[in-house]
Please model this.
Amino acid sequence: MSSYLKKYHLWLGLILLICLNIGGVVSHGAEKSLGKPGFSYTAKVRKTILANGLTILVKPTPGNEVVSIKLFLKMGNLYEPVGRVGISTLMQRLLTKGTTTRNAQEISHLIESAGSQLSQGSLNYFGYVGLKTTLAGFAESFPVFTDVILNAAFPEKELAKERQMLLQQIAGIKDHPGSLSYINFLKLFYGNHPYGISLEKLKRSLKRLTRQELVAYYQKVYVPANMVVSVVGNLKPQVIIDKLQESLGRLPAKRFSLKPVVVKQSLKKENQFFYQKKKTEALVMILGYPAPGVLSSEKPTMDLLNWLLGNGSSSRLYVELREKKGLAYVVSSNYQPSRGASYIMAYLATAPHNFPVALKEVVAQFRSLATKKITREELLRAKKATKGAYLMSHETNGSQSRLLGRYELMG
Model:
C-alpha cells in the first residue's frame, strides 16, 4: 500500500495564510465493536422505484422513535449553468422560506410544534432536503416536508434576504483565516473546475440571480428521475411508501436534463503556491495532492493512508510535528473524495518562524507514505480505526439515511 501514493505524489497546491488565534487539538473518537463477520447494514433495506422514476429506500429500525427522511438530488457546483455559480445554494436556502400554501413562519411553526427538524443544503455534486421527526410528530411534519419539495414559491422578499445573508457570510470569510486559506486552496487546486471557488465570481453571480432563474433551475432539478428518498426509522415500509406515492409519486415523470460540467484537469508538472499576508500572529498552511474520487476502487486505500498521515493524536503528522518537534499548534490531514477530481491535504497552523522547517516536515511525511513500507502494526491499527469510524457513522437513524441516500444517488 505504501507504494500506492507514488502516482499521486505530485505537489499541486500550497496555500499560506498568516492568521491569529489558531489552537486546539484534533481528537480521535473511541472505537466500537466491529460486529460479526458478514454483518450488513443494507440487509433490511427495501428499495422501491415508483412509476414516475422516484427511488425510495426504507430501512425499518424498531430500536427508537426517531424517523429520518432524506431526499437527495444531483445538483450543486458540478451541475450549475455557466455564470450561475451559487444558484444551488440560494435555491436550497429558499425552499423553506415559503410555498404556494405556507409562508416561512407557518413552515417553521408547524415543524417546531411537532418536535421535528427540517434541513436542506447543497454541496459539490448533490443536494438534500431532510426531515428528522418522531412517530408522534410524523403526521404533522411529513406534509410540510413534501410541501417544500413540491411547491416552493421563492418569494421575492425572502430571496432578497437570503441573498444579502449569503453575501455577508462571504464577506466574513476574510476574517476567518482557516476558511479563507481553504477557499484559496480550492481555487488554486481546481482552477476553472466547478469545485474551485472564486469568491468574486460567486458574489457577482449571487447579485444578479433572479427569481425566474431559480424557478427554472428548481424545475430541472426536482424531477422524480433525479430523486432518491431514504427513510430510516420505526415505520412499516409500506406505510411510508404509500405516503410518498400519494405526494411525490404524483409528480409527472420527467427526464433529468442537467449534465455535469466536464473540465479536464491535467496534473501540474510544477509546484503551485499561493501566499496571502495579513497582520496576525500565526500562519496557516494547506498543502494538497490529487487523490482518487469517491467511486474509485482505490478509495479504501486512501482512507487508510489518510488515517495514518493525520487523523488523530497517534498519526504521523501529529506525532512528528506537534509532539516531537513542537512545530505546530494544529496539524491534521483530510482526504476529500468527490465525484471526479479529488484531493488529500495537510492542514497546519504554526508560528511564522517555524514555517520553513514545518513545510519540509509535512512534505517528508507525504514522501514517506509514497516511498517506504508501512509496518504491519500501523496497517492493522489503521484498519481497526477506519472500520470503527465507519460503524460509528451508522449510530443514528439520520446518519444511516444520509449514507444510504447518497450512495444510491451516486450509483
